Amino acid sequence: MSDLKYELKKQIIEELNLEDIQPEDIEDDAPLFGDGLGLDSIDALELVVLMEKYYGVKITDEETGKKVLASINAMSEFILEQKEKNK
Amino acid sequence: MIIPKEKIEDFIPQRPPFIMIDNLIEASAETFRSDFRILPGNIFLENDLLREFALIENIAQTSSAGLASSGLFFGKQKADGYLGGVSKLKLYELPKVNETIYTIVNLVARLENMFLLKGVNYCEDRKLMECEIKLVGI
Fold this sequence. Notes:
The structure holds 2 protein chains of 2 kinds.
Chain A: H1 3-15, H2 43-55, H3 62-68, H4 72-85
Helix pairs in contact in A: 1-4
Chain B: E1 23-27, E2 31-37, E3 45-46, E4 49-50, H1 52-69, E5 81-91, E6 100-111, E7 114-123, E8 126-137
Antiparallel strand pairs in B: 1-2, 2-6, 3-4, 5-8, 6-7, 7-8
Protein backbone atom coordinates (compact mmCIF):
# COMPACT_ATOMS: atom_id res chain seq x y z
CA MET A 1 0.00 0.00 0.00
CA SER A 2 1.44 3.42 -0.93
CA ASP A 3 2.18 5.88 1.85
CA LEU A 4 -0.29 8.39 0.42
CA LYS A 5 -3.17 5.92 0.39
CA TYR A 6 -2.35 4.74 3.89
CA GLU A 7 -2.19 8.32 5.15
CA LEU A 8 -5.54 9.09 3.51
CA LYS A 9 -7.15 6.14 5.24
CA LYS A 10 -5.75 7.18 8.61
CA GLN A 11 -6.92 10.76 8.09
CA ILE A 12 -10.44 9.70 7.04
CA ILE A 13 -10.75 7.47 10.11
CA GLU A 14 -9.57 10.28 12.37
CA GLU A 15 -11.54 13.14 10.83
CA LEU A 16 -14.80 11.19 10.64
CA ASN A 17 -14.21 9.49 13.97
CA LEU A 18 -14.82 6.04 12.50
CA GLU A 19 -14.63 3.76 15.47
CA ASP A 20 -13.50 0.14 15.10
CA ILE A 21 -12.11 0.69 11.59
CA GLN A 22 -8.43 0.32 10.78
CA PRO A 23 -6.69 1.60 7.64
CA GLU A 24 -6.24 -2.03 6.56
CA ASP A 25 -10.04 -2.48 6.54
CA ILE A 26 -10.50 0.05 3.73
CA GLU A 27 -9.93 -1.30 0.23
CA ASP A 28 -8.21 1.08 -2.19
CA ASP A 29 -10.90 0.72 -4.85
CA ALA A 30 -13.96 0.22 -2.62
CA PRO A 31 -16.61 2.96 -2.71
CA LEU A 32 -16.35 5.29 0.27
CA PHE A 33 -20.04 6.13 0.14
CA GLY A 34 -23.08 3.88 0.34
CA ASP A 35 -22.28 0.19 0.35
CA GLY A 36 -18.53 0.53 0.75
CA LEU A 37 -17.33 2.37 3.82
CA GLY A 38 -20.88 3.56 4.44
CA LEU A 39 -20.26 7.30 4.44
CA ASP A 40 -23.15 9.61 3.55
CA SER A 41 -23.26 12.74 1.44
CA ILE A 42 -22.87 14.99 4.47
CA ASP A 43 -19.60 13.23 5.35
CA ALA A 44 -18.33 14.38 1.97
CA LEU A 45 -18.01 17.86 3.38
CA GLU A 46 -15.41 16.68 5.90
CA LEU A 47 -13.48 14.89 3.17
CA VAL A 48 -13.40 18.16 1.22
CA VAL A 49 -11.92 19.87 4.29
CA LEU A 50 -9.44 17.00 4.74
CA MET A 51 -8.22 17.29 1.14
CA GLU A 52 -7.60 21.01 1.54
CA LYS A 53 -6.14 20.81 5.04
CA TYR A 54 -3.60 18.07 4.38
CA TYR A 55 -2.94 18.36 0.65
CA GLY A 56 -3.91 21.91 -0.33
CA VAL A 57 -6.36 20.51 -2.88
CA LYS A 58 -9.68 22.29 -3.33
CA ILE A 59 -12.96 20.68 -4.36
CA THR A 60 -15.54 23.34 -5.08
CA ASP A 61 -18.43 21.58 -6.78
CA GLU A 62 -20.47 18.47 -6.23
CA GLU A 63 -19.64 16.91 -9.59
CA THR A 64 -15.89 16.99 -8.92
CA GLY A 65 -16.56 15.83 -5.37
CA LYS A 66 -18.47 12.76 -6.55
CA LYS A 67 -15.62 11.76 -8.85
CA VAL A 68 -12.71 12.55 -6.57
CA LEU A 69 -14.18 11.19 -3.35
CA ALA A 70 -15.40 7.94 -4.89
CA SER A 71 -12.58 5.81 -3.45
CA ILE A 72 -9.10 5.98 -1.94
CA ASN A 73 -7.66 5.37 -5.41
CA ALA A 74 -9.62 8.32 -6.84
CA MET A 75 -8.59 10.60 -3.98
CA SER A 76 -4.91 9.77 -4.27
CA GLU A 77 -4.95 10.10 -8.07
CA PHE A 78 -6.51 13.55 -7.79
CA ILE A 79 -3.95 14.68 -5.19
CA LEU A 80 -1.06 13.50 -7.39
CA GLU A 81 -2.59 15.14 -10.49
CA GLN A 82 -2.97 18.44 -8.68
CA LYS A 83 0.60 18.26 -7.36
CA GLU A 84 1.86 17.61 -10.89
CA LYS A 85 -0.14 20.58 -12.23
CA ASN A 86 1.30 22.89 -9.61
CA LYS A 87 4.92 21.93 -10.23
CA MET B 1 -26.42 45.28 14.33
CA ILE B 2 -27.06 43.13 11.30
CA ILE B 3 -30.41 41.59 12.32
CA PRO B 4 -32.25 42.82 15.42
CA LYS B 5 -34.29 40.47 17.59
CA GLU B 6 -37.56 41.74 16.14
CA LYS B 7 -36.54 40.65 12.62
CA ILE B 8 -34.73 37.39 13.36
CA GLU B 9 -37.76 35.25 12.43
CA ASP B 10 -37.45 36.54 8.87
CA PHE B 11 -34.07 34.77 8.57
CA ILE B 12 -34.41 31.46 10.41
CA PRO B 13 -37.07 28.76 10.18
CA GLN B 14 -37.51 28.26 13.95
CA ARG B 15 -40.40 29.84 15.85
CA PRO B 16 -40.95 30.56 19.56
CA PRO B 17 -40.40 28.91 21.96
CA PHE B 18 -37.53 27.31 20.00
CA ILE B 19 -35.71 30.48 19.04
CA MET B 20 -32.34 30.48 20.81
CA ILE B 21 -30.83 33.66 19.37
CA ASP B 22 -31.67 37.33 19.92
CA ASN B 23 -29.61 39.59 17.68
CA LEU B 24 -27.21 38.76 14.89
CA ILE B 25 -24.54 41.35 15.62
CA GLU B 26 -22.00 40.55 12.90
CA ALA B 27 -22.03 38.72 9.61
CA SER B 28 -18.91 38.98 7.50
CA ALA B 29 -18.10 36.55 4.72
CA GLU B 30 -16.96 33.80 7.06
CA THR B 31 -17.77 34.89 10.62
CA PHE B 32 -21.13 35.34 12.32
CA ARG B 33 -21.75 36.62 15.86
CA SER B 34 -24.93 36.69 17.91
CA ASP B 35 -26.19 37.32 21.43
CA PHE B 36 -28.95 35.65 23.41
CA ARG B 37 -30.34 36.48 26.83
CA ILE B 38 -31.65 33.47 28.73
CA LEU B 39 -35.02 34.52 30.06
CA PRO B 40 -36.95 32.76 32.82
CA GLY B 41 -39.42 30.46 31.10
CA ASN B 42 -36.99 29.27 28.42
CA ILE B 43 -38.14 25.72 27.68
CA PHE B 44 -34.59 24.38 27.80
CA LEU B 45 -33.90 25.51 31.35
CA GLU B 46 -33.35 22.84 33.98
CA ASN B 47 -32.52 23.87 37.53
CA ASP B 48 -31.94 27.39 36.20
CA LEU B 49 -29.26 26.16 33.78
CA LEU B 50 -29.66 26.23 30.00
CA ARG B 51 -29.24 22.68 28.71
CA GLU B 52 -26.53 21.73 26.24
CA PHE B 53 -28.87 21.11 23.28
CA ALA B 54 -29.99 24.75 23.52
CA LEU B 55 -26.35 25.79 23.11
CA ILE B 56 -26.10 23.62 19.98
CA GLU B 57 -29.35 25.13 18.72
CA ASN B 58 -27.95 28.59 19.41
CA ILE B 59 -24.90 27.82 17.26
CA ALA B 60 -27.10 26.37 14.51
CA GLN B 61 -29.44 29.37 14.50
CA THR B 62 -26.52 31.81 14.52
CA SER B 63 -25.17 29.91 11.50
CA SER B 64 -28.51 30.00 9.67
CA ALA B 65 -29.07 33.69 10.29
CA GLY B 66 -25.47 34.51 9.34
CA LEU B 67 -25.56 32.50 6.12
CA ALA B 68 -28.92 33.94 5.12
CA SER B 69 -28.02 37.55 5.87
CA SER B 70 -24.71 37.20 4.01
CA GLY B 71 -26.48 35.95 0.90
CA LEU B 72 -24.58 32.65 1.14
CA PHE B 73 -27.76 30.63 1.35
CA PHE B 74 -28.35 30.66 -2.39
CA GLY B 75 -29.49 34.27 -2.08
CA LYS B 76 -32.53 33.21 -0.05
CA GLN B 77 -33.43 35.41 2.87
CA LYS B 78 -34.51 32.51 5.05
CA ALA B 79 -32.16 29.60 5.66
CA ASP B 80 -34.44 26.58 5.35
CA GLY B 81 -32.62 23.34 5.92
CA TYR B 82 -31.63 20.87 8.56
CA LEU B 83 -28.83 20.11 10.95
CA GLY B 84 -26.94 17.28 9.29
CA GLY B 85 -24.56 16.51 12.12
CA VAL B 86 -22.76 17.73 15.21
CA SER B 87 -19.17 16.74 15.90
CA LYS B 88 -16.07 17.64 17.91
CA LEU B 89 -18.31 18.87 20.69
CA LYS B 90 -16.76 20.05 23.95
CA LEU B 91 -18.98 21.24 26.78
CA TYR B 92 -17.29 23.40 29.41
CA GLU B 93 -20.13 24.97 31.34
CA LEU B 94 -23.88 25.58 31.21
CA PRO B 95 -25.07 29.20 31.49
CA LYS B 96 -27.63 30.34 34.05
CA VAL B 97 -30.99 32.01 33.64
CA ASN B 98 -30.77 35.78 33.07
CA GLU B 99 -27.23 35.50 31.69
CA THR B 100 -26.44 36.56 28.13
CA ILE B 101 -24.48 34.31 25.84
CA TYR B 102 -22.37 35.46 22.91
CA THR B 103 -21.71 33.15 20.01
CA ILE B 104 -19.10 33.17 17.28
CA VAL B 105 -19.45 30.91 14.25
CA ASN B 106 -16.88 30.48 11.50
CA LEU B 107 -17.66 28.99 8.13
CA VAL B 108 -15.07 26.23 7.64
CA ALA B 109 -16.15 24.81 4.29
CA ARG B 110 -18.94 24.68 1.81
CA LEU B 111 -19.86 22.13 -0.83
CA GLU B 112 -22.92 23.12 -2.85
CA ASN B 113 -25.81 23.12 -0.35
CA MET B 114 -23.79 21.75 2.58
CA PHE B 115 -21.97 23.93 5.08
CA LEU B 116 -19.44 22.97 7.74
CA LEU B 117 -19.30 25.53 10.55
CA LYS B 118 -17.40 25.79 13.81
CA GLY B 119 -19.17 27.53 16.66
CA VAL B 120 -18.26 28.63 20.16
CA ASN B 121 -20.52 30.23 22.75
CA TYR B 122 -19.32 32.36 25.63
CA CYS B 123 -20.79 33.97 28.71
CA GLU B 124 -18.65 36.99 29.56
CA ASP B 125 -15.15 35.48 29.25
CA ARG B 126 -16.17 31.91 30.03
CA LYS B 127 -16.29 29.43 27.19
CA LEU B 128 -19.47 27.34 27.34
CA MET B 129 -19.36 24.98 24.40
CA GLU B 130 -17.63 24.46 21.08
CA CYS B 131 -18.59 22.16 18.26
CA GLU B 132 -18.72 21.71 14.53
CA ILE B 133 -22.06 21.46 12.78
CA LYS B 134 -23.09 20.52 9.29
CA LEU B 135 -26.02 22.43 7.87
CA VAL B 136 -27.77 21.21 4.77
CA GLY B 137 -29.86 23.67 2.81
CA ILE B 138 -33.08 22.65 1.09
